[in-house]
């Protein structure tokens, strides 16, 4: 008799177990092929890292902006040597001691690098259609690479009031020309200015 009860309990346990398994399976969604969707956790925009020609690029444009007509009288810089429409922007580092690197904003070719009166060291980087002018660099720091990659260091700023900047303050003059390797930091009429783009309106930094 005891043996029968024992077997009855075992059978009951088995029946309950099978019933539970069947119920569980019913509640599960059916797995079909191609239903797995990978949802990206990082948006594409976040993955694109902006590269600017120099650190604190936007914050440090405190003196000369793009297209401003500079005269000896109205200039934010004293003494002023130049006159005309400013073809780029000036990023100021007089308060920074030590080396300030400048970076290539795009994959391209260095089409010019030399010491020029008014700039000290200057280079022009060409990417696609545009020419990127970096002025007031330490001449000897300018890269010897002809082809450079976006984000690559291509030089450092020259020291202010030395031959490196042709006795200008420590700052980066950065310009973008649409047509040619034109070094001019100022032009004398608005029609000529049309060959340049306002670097603050360029979208090159996000590419
Ligand atoms: Zn300038």
Q: What is this structure's SSE topology?
A:
Layout: H1 2-27, H2 44-47, E1 69-70, E2 84-86, E3 88-92, E4 101-103, E5 108-116, E6 120-127, E7 130-137, E8 147-148, E9 153-156, E10 171-177, E11 186-187, H3 190-193, E12 196-197
Antiparallel strand pairs: 1-2, 2-11, 3-10, 4-9, 5-6, 5-8, 6-7, 7-10, 10-12
The structure holds zinc ion.
Share of helix among residues? 10-25%
Cα end-to-end separation? 84 Å
The distinct bound ligands, ions and cofactors come out as:
zinc ion
Low-confidence stretches: 27-31
The major β-sheet equals: 7 strands, antiparallel
Radius of gyration: 32 Å
Portion in beta strands: 25-35%
- Principal-axes geometry comes out as elongated
Q: CATH homologous superfamily - what is it?
A: Glucose Permease (Domain IIA)
Computed structural class: alpha+beta
Number of domains: 1
Task: Tell me about this structure.
With 207 residues, the protein is an alpha+beta fold. It has a single domain (47-206), classed as Glucose Permease (Domain IIA). Helix content is 16%, strand content 27%. It has three helices and twelve strands. The chain has helices spanning 2-27, 44-47, 190-193; strands at 69-70, 84-86, 88-92, 101-103, 108-116, 120-127, 130-137, 147-148, 153-156, 171-177, 186-187, 196-197. The strands form three sheets. Strands 3, 5, 6, 7, 8, 10 and 12 form a seven-stranded antiparallel β-sheet that branches. The radius of gyration is 32 Å and the shape is elongated. The chain starts with a helix and ends in a 10-residue tail after the last strand. 26% of the residues are buried. Mean pLDDT is 87; it is low at 27-31. The chain binds zinc ion.
């Amino acid at each position: 008799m005891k043996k029968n009860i024992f077997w009855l309990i075992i059978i009951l346990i088995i029946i309950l177990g099978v019933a539970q398994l069947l119920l569980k399976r019913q509640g599960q969604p059916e797995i079909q092929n191609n239903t797995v969707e990978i949802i990206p956790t990082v948006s594409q925009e976040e993955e694109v890292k902006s590269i600017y020609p120099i650190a604190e690029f936007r914050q440090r444009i405190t003196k000369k902006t793009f297209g401003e007509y500079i005269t000896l009288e109205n200039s934010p810089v004293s003494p002023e040597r130049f006159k005309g429409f400013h073809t780029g922007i000036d990023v100021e580092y007089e308060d920074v001691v030590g080396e300030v690197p400048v970076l290539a904003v795009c994959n391209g070719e260095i089409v010019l690098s030399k010491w020029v009166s008014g700039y000290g060291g200057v280079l022009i980087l060409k990417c696609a259609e545009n020419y990127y002018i970096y002025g007031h660099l330490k001449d000897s720091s300018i890269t010897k690479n002809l082809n450079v990659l976006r984000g690559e260091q291509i030089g450092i700023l020259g020291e202010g009031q030395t031959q490196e900047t042709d006795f200008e303050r420590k700052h980066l003059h950065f310009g973008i020309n649409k047509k040619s390797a034109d070094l001019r930091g100022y032009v004398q009429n608005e029609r000529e200015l049309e060959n340049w783009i306002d670097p603050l309106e360029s979208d090159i930094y996000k590419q």
